[in-house]
Amino acid sequence: MTSTQNIIIGIDAGTSVIKAVAFDLAGRQIATASVRNKYATGDDGSATQSLAQTWTDCASALRGLGEKVADLAARTAAVAVTGQGDGTWLVGSGNAPVTDAWLWLDARAASTVNRLAGGVNNRARFEATGTGLNTCQQGAQLAHMDKVAPDLLDRAETALHCKDWLYLNLTGIRATDPSEASFTFGNFRTREYDGVVIDALGLERRRNLLPEIIDGTEVSHPLTAEAAKACGLLAGTPVCLGYVDMVMTALGAGVRSSGRNAACSTIGSTGVHMRAKAVADVHLNSEGTGYVIALPIPGIVTQVQTNMGSTINIDWILEIASYLMADAGKTVSHADLIARIDGWFAESKPGSVLYHPYISEAGERGPFVNANARAGFTGLSTRHGFPDLVRSVVEGLGLATRDCYAAMGAMPEELRITGGATRSLGLRRSLSAAVNAPIRQSRREETGAAGVAMMAAVAVGVYPTMDDCIADWVTPLLGEPEVPDTAEAARFDRLFSAYTDVRQAMAPAWDKLATVATPGA
Q1: How far is the CA of 93 from the CAs of 139, 157, 209, 273, 514, in angstroms?
Q2: Measured between alpha carbons, how far apart are the two ends of the chain, in Å?
Q3: Which H or E element spans position 201?
Q4: Interhelix angle 447-459/466-473, nearest 10 degrees
Q5: How far is CA 112 from the centre of its chain?
Q6: CB neighbour list of residue 69: distance below 8 Å, 6 or more residues apart
Q7: CA separation for the pair 418, 446 (Å, rounded)
Q8: Is 265 within 8 Å of 401 (Cβ atoms)?
């Protein structure tokens, strides 16, 4: 690294947007460029994405960044890449795609998940990975392919994830990182593949598909000449393979700071709730749900629970409002309605209406797994109006957050939050009261790209350790603690008791409703 190389590029390849973000060596965001990414869905539950197009879009985002930052190529000290987790990206001879990627949204492996989950070895698999089995994961998807489309695996040479595929195109190296390797096929204690897990998935004969595991804070590979030309960068630039996007986002948002482990929730379309812990402190629940995902810090992992639907619940109720207002001859934009949420919240009074935020067609996956789970209000009466419904939906996100942390053990002492929805005062107060802990909002704009760029900053020697990097890149961007209201915290205690009672009692009804909704049932 020369004295003029003062930029690190973080690539965050999401399901629908790929972002390339430039940071200076102290963590200040300089510029960002993005390209919309496309995926296709089918009536069979499929959700697929073109490998070739994803690489093209990534290169386009990097070229777009070059148009915004003067002399980007010469100034770039390193590039790091993260991306959407889970899913299956198969490559064969000559590094050519075997088929379109199966995304984390793909539900085709459901029957295989049910079969494997009932197997005698599933608990041993969970004890090793710390991760509940679901249709999102590459392990389940490979097991399903091996049963219904073995020719795909016969033609494949390596099974990659999204970020791994981009790393292959950037460097020519087939590899994966310790986080996805261990929560899918390995052991979170060793960060290596585990034969017990591979056997439990029935993939012993497909073990050759699993790539080498490398840690991007310790190992980098040079950008190839071909990739450099496609991206507008210099051949030989160090490229680091990041961990999965969930933990990169949490790292950039403050899941750890000042050498101490913390908790972090990302409130987006889905809700991602995680706690950084020493390996010995991991609490595995009896239901076998959640994830344990390594952080790029020795001996530290994150324990994770994810809600299938978070802000999409708010989007849903605002769509109802928009429909009714349009029917009355008044057209309003979604942005206008978003701006009114805190006003409606303030118009309502703290009460006892419950909302369970299972609005996703896929049901719920955290802290319990039930594809038939559906949203609902409980406790409505004639005195409740639309502002009360808005309040209950917002509070439902807080209660779902508490439900997830409860499955990981005790409530966090402090919660760091990120995601556009956390700009809402009503939501922040609900989150704080629900977990009865102070919250701190991250002011970092691109937390995922920042998290992976931090790995590169350590890899190329800008910082000796990740904690040193966190001190500059993360801690200064954490807002002041927002302390929960004592009376509200007590009300949320009572609400949460009822919340769990209702969701447990509703499970048989959800199953019956699913048969009603099925044509011909």
Answers
A1: 22, 7, 12, 39, 43
A2: 65
A3: none
A4: 140
A5: 23
A6: 7, 22, 30, 31, 75
A7: 10
A8: yes
Percent helix, strand and coil across the chain, each rounded to 5? 45, 20, 35
CA distance 207 to 225: 31
Distances (CA, A) of 499 to 110, 274, 357, 493, 507: 27, 21, 11, 10, 13
The number of CA neighbours under 13 Å toward the Cβ of 455 is 35
Nearest-angstrom CA–CA distance, 9 and 30:
10
C-alpha–C-alpha distance, residues 401 and 404, integer Å = 5
Q: How far apart are CA 132 and CA 485, in angstroms?
A: 35
Contact between 467 and 296 (Cβ < 8 Å):
no
Query: Contact 160/207 with Cβ under 8 angstroms?
Result: no
131, containing H or E segment: none
Tokens 């804070």 locate to 217
Give the Cα separation of 57 and 76 in Å (integer). Answer: 20
Helix (H, G, I), strand (E, B) or coil at 411: coil
Helices (H), 2-92: 51-68, 72-75
Cβ atoms < 10 Å from Cβ of 166: 27
Give which of 429, 471, 469, 433 is closest to 453, Cα–Cα: 469
Length of the chain (residues): 521
Structure tokens at 297: 């810090």
Per-residue pLDDT of the chain (521 residues; tens, 9 = 90+): 677 889 999 999 998 899 999 999 999 999 999 999 889 989 888 999 999 999 999 999 999 999 999 999 999 999 999 999 899 999 999 999 999 999 988 889 989 998 998 889 999 999 999 999 988 899 999 999 999 999 999 999 999 999 999 999 999 999 999 999 999 999 999 999 999 999 999 999 999 999 999 999 999 999 999 999 999 999 999 999 999 999 999 999 999 998 889 899 988 888 899 999 999 999 888 888 889 999 999 999 999 998 888 888 998 999 888 888 887 777 778 788 888 899 999 899 898 899 999 988 778 888 988 878 999 999 999 999 999 999 999 999 999 999 999 988 888 999 999 887 888 899 999 999 999 999 999 999 899 999 999 999 999 999 999 999 999 999 999 999 999 999 999 999 999 999 999 999 999 999 999 888 655 44
How far apart are alpha carbons 465 and 462 in whole angstroms?
Answer: 9
The bridge status of strand 439-441 relative to strand 415-418 is parallel
Three-state SS at 235: coil
Q: What is d(CA 300, CA 406) in angstroms, rounded to the nearest whole number?
A: 20
